[in-house]
Every structure is written in structure tokens, then in C-alpha cells.
Amino acid sequence: MTSKKRTILLTCLVLFWISACKVEYSFTGTTLDYNVTQSFSVANFFNDSGGGPANMGQLFTEDLKDYFQRNTQLELIQNGGDLQLSGAITGYTISPQATVSNPNSNQPDRAGQMRITISVEVDYVNLDNEEENGKRTFSFFQDYDPRTTSLLQVETELVEVIFENIIQEVFTSTVANW
């Protein structure tokens, strides 16, 4: 075999090898194949926790839709998407984290930090890859100081921060596969 033929053969092999490698990358880190998976749907999440703001379920549902729309190329459809998300807010608790005492007073100890914890159960269905289907509970919390602010003053903001973190976790666990 001449050196010219070897060069042509080697070039063809390298080009074949390069074309056979399929590397998918996105700036959001998704592992979705947009040729296969083209849509997603989100069912209404209801607040089954017995606590929290009245619009909490609607807020979570809309924030979840917005996040997936911003971070994927998937089309949001009413129901029956290639990816389907459903579930409920299953926990909303407010609990003391640290106590503060006043040694010069007969007053009882009181909470120096309070914690809001929210849990959301998410059922994920991927019609294109059933091995990824599953149900999981995501939980996150935020603390606040009841000595300087009331729950009414911070609840909306804290719920939004908690939802942002839970939604990022849901996204990472479902379409980013990290």
C-alpha cells in the first residue's frame, strides 16, 4: 500500500470516527435529545400540606413551567407531553431553630431563629425513556429572625426562595441527570 493510499484511508477512518461520536452539550446541562423529546407538561400541584399561603400550589406550578421553558427547548403543552411532571406540596412547617434567653428577665426563652421548610413530591414520567420515571420528594428550608421581622413580612419571599431551590433540584434530577 502506498503512502498516499494509507493517508487517504487514515483520513477516512478519522472522519468516520469523528462523525460516529455524538456529543450533546447545552449550557443548561440537559441531557435531552430534542429530536426525540419535544414537549413537556406540568399538572397542577396542589397544596396538601395544610399550611402556607393560599396560592402556594399555583405559584409552584407556574414557576416550574417557567423554569423548564427558560432552560430547555421543549414546548409546553397542556397535558400528555413527552416529559410529564405532577405532584403535590406535601409539607409546610415552621419550627424554632435557636432559642434566646434574657438572663436579667423573668421572661421565658424565645426563638431566635425560625425555619420554614417545604416538601414537594414530584412524579416524573419520560415517555421516551421509561427507566428515568420515578417519584421523589424534594425539600428545602429558609430561616428568619422573628425578633426583627414577622412571618407575614417574609413568608412570600422565603417561599419563593425555597421554590427556586426545589425547582432547580427537580430540574437537575430529571433532565440534567446529575
UniProtKB/TrEMBL annotation:
The keyword Signal applies. InterPro entries: LPS_assembly_LptE. Residues 1-22 form the signal peptide. It comes from the Bacteria. Keywords: Signal. This is LptE family protein. It comes from Cyclobacterium jeungdonense.
